[in-house]
Specification:
Blueprint lengths: L1 H14 L6 E9 L7 E10 L5 E3 L1 E3 L3 E12 L2 E7 L2 E3 L3 E5 L4 E8 L8 E8 L2 E10 L4
Bound molecules: copper (II) ion (CU).
Length: 140
């Protein structure tokens, strides 16, 4: 029984290397000040498929942690709330932009400078998509 389950999982992984239908456009990482331990990334997540895409985790080899955050103001104070998952509806898109939803990248393992690329990996419930985002000072 265990062997059969293992074989089935391998098949799914081999046949579905990417988050089906997901495209990532206009992505960039804001260059953090020297010595900063966090950076934010922005992009448009688009679902070109007919089924919802649920992003269950985000990671980058260049950071210890990555999380989806939402900036908001509560009682006059700016706060960030973490999203465990993010669902992109079929034929729809979600924008990650300064002041709103963003990807928080924490504890870089090397310095981050304008012009470099940062590889980000999205996990959609076992399927994975990666994207290289340029580090920029300002909005593209
Ligand atoms: Cu944040």
């Amino acid at each position: 029984m265990i062997k059969i389950i293992g074989a089935a999982l391998l098949l799914v992984t081999a046949n579905s290397p990417a988050c089906t239908g997901l495209t990532i456009d206009q992505g960039w990482v804001r260059e953090p000040p020297p010595g900063a331990t966090v950076a934010a990334a922005f992009m448009t997540l688009r679902n070109n498929g007919a089924a919802p895409i649920t992003i269950t985790a985000v990671s980058s080899r260049r950071f210890a942690h990555a999380m989806l955050h939402q900036s908001m103001t509560v009682d006059g104070t700016a706060r960030m709330v973490a999203h465990e998952t993010l669902v992109v509806a079929p034929h729809n898109s979600i924008q990650l932009a300064p002041g709103g939803l963003h990807l928080m990248l924490m504890q870089p393992n090397m310095s981050l400078r304008k012009g470099q690329q940062v590889e980000i990996e999205f996990d959609c419930g076992g399927h994975r998509s990666t994207v290289d985002l340029p580090i920029r000072r300002d909005l593209p």
